[in-house]
Amino acid sequence: MTLEVINPEKPVYKGQVVLVQMPGAMGSFEIMYNHAPLMAILEKGRLKVIDEERNKFYIDIESGVVEVRNNHIMVITP
What is the CATH code of the structural domain delimited by 2-76? Predict the structure, then answer.
C-alpha cells in the first residue's frame, strides 16, 4: 500500500509500506493492507512505518489528519 505524508511546504515521504502506526486523538492505531476506509485526527507524536523491505523508521508529526482508502494512506500535517 502507498503512504504519503505531506505538509504545506513539501512532501515529507511517499513510498510503499506494509504497516503504519499513528498517534490518533483517541489513542494509537495501526493501518495494514486492505484496511477499511478511515478518516482520523492525529496528535503530536511519531508515525512508525515499516516499508516493503521490512525496514522500520519513524516520522515525527505535530498534528494532522489521515485518510485511508483503497490501500492509499494520506497524512496531512501542518
Answer: 2.60.15.10
Reference 3, options 53, 13, 11, 61; nearest CA is: 13
**Grid coordinates given for 68:** 485511508
3-state secondary structure the chain: CEEEEECCCCEEEEEEEEEEEEEECCEEEEEECCCCCEEEEECCEEEEEEECCCCEEEEEECCEEEEEECCEEEEECC
CA distance 26 to 30: 13
Q: pLDDT digits over 28-42, tens only?
A: 999 999 999 999 999
pTM for the full predicted model: 0.92
d(CA 55, CA 37): 25
